[in-house]
Amino acid sequence: MTEAASAPWLVVCLCAQWCGTCGQYQPAFDALAKEWPDMAFVWLDVEDEEEALGELDITTFPTVLLGRGTEAMFLGPVLPQSGVLQRMLERFSQGDAQALPDGDEAHALLRRTAAIVQARNAQT
Predict the structure, then answer these.
(1) What are phi and psi for residue 3, nearest 5 degrees?
(2) Thioredoxin domain spans which residues (predicted)?
(3) pTM (predicted TM-score)
(4) Distance between CA 51 and CA 35 in Å, rounded?
(5) Which of 30, 33, 48, 106 could pair covalently with 41 via S-S, beta carbons 3.0-4.6 A apart?
(6) Distance from C-alpha of 70 to C-alpha of 59, rounded to nearest angstrom
(7) What's the CA gap between 6 and 1, in Å, rounded?
(8) Cβ atoms of 7 and 66 closer than 8 Å
(9) From residue 46, how far is each of 13, 14, 53, 100 by CA, in Å?
(10) Is 82 exposed, middle or buried (0-12, 13-18, 19+ CB in 10 A)?
(11) How far is CA 122 from the centre of its chain?
(12) In this structure, are residues 35 and 7 in contact, taking their beta carbons and an 8 Å threshold?
């Protein structure tokens, strides 16, 4: 079993405080977090955590980053409906998900986001 296969999943919603769609989507995202307790769900405001984005420019909200360990599996906008993300999680958790290609900026974003999560957890 590879390190990624045994690592915890990280589900990140990249959002913005000013985005009305994000505000409406957050309760559904939080509800999914309760349904998937073995996955870490993170709500990340792109303006509060600009350093996490690096050169990446998020233009469509909500955008979701999904990864396991240090391997990003998905980065892209999703429809703001819990069923869409639910189906993605079901599919990816089946074990047949492939990581994005090496060099994809999503891998670096996943590492930076994981560091933010660790820092947040250390403060609590």
Answers:
(1) -60, -45
(2) 9-69
(3) 0.90
(4) 30
(5) 33
(6) 24
(7) 7
(8) no
(9) 10, 6, 7, 22
(10) middle
(11) 20
(12) no
